Each structure stands twice: as structure tokens, then as C-alpha cells.
Amino acid sequence: MDNNQPIIVKRVKKTAGGHHGGAWKIAFADFMTAMMAFFLVMWLMSSATPEQKRAISGYFQDPIGFTESASPHVIDLGGTPTPSPDRTLNPEIDPAVPQADVQIDGDQVETLAEQIERERLELLLQELQNKVDENPELERFKDQILFEITKDGLRIQIMDDENRPMFALGSAQLQPYFEDILLAMGDTIRAVPNKISISGHTDAKPYAGNGDFGNWELSANRANAARRTLIAGRYPEEQIARVVGYASSALFDRKNPLNPINRRIDILVLTKKAQRNIENEQFVPAEGDDASKAPAAPANPSAPAGASGEPLSPGQVRERLNIFDEGVLKLDQPRPAGGDDQ
């Protein structure tokens, strides 16, 4: 009997397992990074002081305000040798034992004070220079104004010009524009606590007058007129250490003694050392004298001011201050007999 039933053969194809890829490595690396960051945070928190923890809290509460008002580095990781306030890893340092104060000798203190004072005078010089450059009235006379830093302080020299003299011919009467310069300078100089010294200078041309009045008296009177103008502009009178006249003994242009720039007014913003030297020169107690009995400086009358106590304008200063008008000084300041360019 024939068997016509078909024979079915099932063939099963066996294949090896495929490659699963490296995605698990990325996940494991992220996990390790997170764990390392976690342990780093734990270490920082365990080594941070309470002050540093408050700084960290302030940063996360207000990041923008914190970076604008404090250092962006909350915890010092720069290797500073200063031990932590409440713990230290160095067994040789005991935070409970107070450390000895650093001793600084007098010379170092003096040097540091002189450096700070010099920086302050340099800033004052820059401020005065900016005022001259920005003020149209002063800018016209910038060639007659010289600033320089010396060993005794900041020197401001206002020099005469052949076409723009500071004073009337042969007298101590200030010209209006010179008063404006002095008032502008005094307004800036009084911002610093340093005292000033005012000196007057003439050229080498002999004073064309008779009697005992000469270039020495003229230079001293001009320096005193500059002082009066500064006082009228509300400059503190106690900040003026000295007013002196040099005549032609300290020429600016020694090669040309008759040069108009030799006629000038010097305002020296003194360093503390120069101020002490001046004060020591003014009173040197004799042997056996009590230094505490040094004669006190006489009280000076108050500076002229308006009814409200406000500073006077340049016009009011010229109107109320200039004591050299109408021959007031004829008794002690003879007028020149000839054409004098002093």
C-alpha cells in the first residue's frame, strides 16, 4: 500500500548571540563620576569651617549678589599655610596656642607711611591736572601752571607770563584770573589733610623803588596775598604751615634771571616729614627749656565769607579781600619810581 503522505523536514538554524554594545560602560562611568563628586562634596563639607559653610549657603541662596560683593572662591584651596580656625592637619601647630605677633620696626613703618603718602599726592596731582584740562577758564593758563612731585611733597608753581602777569606792576595786587586759579586749586587741595607752604619769587631785576622796600618784601607780600585768597576761598587757615618770600634767590630759569617765569608763586603740599622739619625749625627749645612751653601760634581772624557762611565768589573775593587797592600799602610798600616789571 502506497504512503502518499508528504514528509516534512524542520531545519532549525542555530546562530550565536550577537554583540550587546558598550552602553553599560557609559552608564557606569556616569555613576562613578557622580560618586566621586559626592565624596568630594562630603570631604569639603567635613573640612570646611562654620564661616565657610555660611559662605557656601550664601552663594547658593544668591549667586549673583554673592559674586558681586564677595570673593568667588568660597573655600581656599590655594595651599595657604594659615591653619583652619577649628582644626589643623599639622600636628606641629596647636591652634589653641596664640601665635606671636609680627614685629615691624620703626623704619619699615616710616617707609610704608611715606609710600602711602606719595600715592595720595600722586592722586592729588592727577586730580589737579584733570581740573585744569576740564575747566575752560583754567585751560587757558595751563602753560603757566606746573605740577611736580618732590621729596618734600607736591609742588604747584604758578608762573608769570610777559603778557599775563599774576600781579599788578611792582605790587602785591592780584590779577582777577590769578585769583580764580588760586580758588580753584584751593578747593581741590583742601581735600587732603597735608599742610601747605606758600612762597613768593621775583626775577633778578632790582626793585625800582627807594627806601628799605625791595624784592624780598615784594615776594613776601605776594605770597601773603596768595594766602589771603586761599583763606577767602574757605581753605583751612590751620593747614598753612609757612608763608615766605625768596626774592630772586631761587630762580626757575637760572640762565636767564630776567625771564618772567622767575616771577611765580609756589604752593607746596607738604609731606609729613617736611612738615615736621618746618615745625622743628620754627621752635627749637634751648637747653633746659621745657618744650611744652613753646609759644602758641597767635589766633588769626576768620576768613571773610558771605552772610550765609558760604564761600565767596571770585568777584566777591576781589571786592572784599584785596587790601592793596587805593594805596593802602603806601606806608610800608613804596611804589616803583620807574618802569618795573616785577
From TrEMBL:
Record field: compositional bias (Basic and acidic residues): 317-333
Family, per entry: Belongs to the MotB family.
Primary location group: membrane
Organism encoding this protein: Stutzerimonas degradans
GO cellular-component term (any): plasma membrane
Feature: compositional bias, Low complexity: 293-315
Membrane topology: Single-pass membrane protein
SUPFAM superfamilies: OmpA-like (SSF103088)
Region Disordered: start-end pairs: 288-342
Keyword entries, A-Z: Cell membrane, Membrane, Transmembrane, Transmembrane helix
Record has Membrane as a keyword: yes
Stretches assigned to the OmpA-like domain: 154-273
Protein's name in the database: Motility protein MotB
Residue ranges crossing the lipid bilayer per the database entry: 26-45
Protein location: Cell membrane
Domain of life from the UniProt record: Bacteria
